[in-house]
């Protein structure tokens, strides 16, 4: 499988740490997917009788939270503190499973919703961390093996999750999956997150780099619609039909990708996922009120093939331009959540019509396949995933360092212009690079209160009132200096 060029690592990595990093990413992906399967097969099924709309509300909240992640990564990357947010995610999932367990047992909608929202917050941060960790793997092959192996193993494992688990057991395992995934990836992602915090605001001044990926959001929405339809269609005991047939299809697709050495292997994988989804929709009218699961298997296989492609694309986007990665993850996963909600609603409507009007239920499936094919035909005849990734501007480690040096230079210039002391200028540089007061106190062996006093004084001299205003002032100084260099 051919891949776009990625930046060369600054220093060679030994094979043992690289293999360990790949294994940690593989384990995290399997656990992340397992947590989603537990939610669909057990948690949602347990709450269907008293709070069926909760799954749609939670999925919409997922979309909003992913958009928030993208906006923060674009506009306020200084807030992306790996340790703080990972600790927050750990607290959120712990509180979430407690609320879910108590809420479902007591048939309490508010507690259940609170649990779903806490779980969503933890999963969103985990997804961002995992994608960053995946992009740090040193070779294209390791990224492919993790994404493909994780898709196959997680899908096979999810098929073995029993329906009707006790709620308490499902909640406990859900928490363990997310906590273990966070533990596996956060140290891998932390250095990259530090670079994003320090230089992301300056590196993403120009949003034109996202233009090649605009059609991707529509595509993700359409595939996720098929996924949501498969989850809801012909549900048994309020849980989705799951078969191992889709795993076999995904395994064959993965083998084809590994063998394929052409420049268009990503586009071929996309074509396969589209064909599987179309086949699933075409079979659906013949499986109304059936438990055979052919429709679910085909749609699920199409979804898994596409998500395999998506993980690969996101990882290689991050390898070319680290600063684009989290915004891409946020917007792509938001589109996925919205599509899943839309497809699930159509699937539930189909199930309800099955008893009273099976012909109308078949019409629903026909409409889905028509819309899917029509949108893809109109929007993706000339779109290439391989070319989209290749168009991402390559940001190399020296450029990242150069961005950091621009921040330092701007801070020193501001220090001279506004009469900052040498210590205040040093603290300004660290604040502009995303460091907090505790880090500064440890670096310069000062008390935290002394650092707060320095920050208060430099804020007053610069005429700013918040960290964001300080960063904006630094960015303006960098842009002004760049403009002066161009005119000289």
From TrEMBL:
Q: Which InterPro entries match?
A: Sig_transdc_resp-reg_C-effctor, Tscrpt_reg_LuxR_C, WH-like_DNA-bd_sf
From the Swiss-Prot or TrEMBL record, give the protein name: HTH luxR-type domain-containing protein
**SUPFAM superfamilies the record matches:** C-terminal effector domain of the bipartite response regulators
Q: Which residues form the HTH luxR-type domain?
A: 413-478
TM regions (residue ranges)? 21-44, 50-72, 84-106, 112-134, 143-163, 169-189, 210-233, 239-257, 269-286, 298-316, 323-340, 360-380
UniProt keywords, alphabetically: DNA-binding, Membrane, Transcription, Transcription regulation, Transmembrane, Transmembrane helix
> What GO molecular function annotations does the UniProt record carry, in alphabetical order?
DNA binding
Q: Does the keyword Repressor apply?
A: no
Example of a GO biological process term: regulation of DNA-templated transcription
Q: Which domain of life is it from?
A: Bacteria
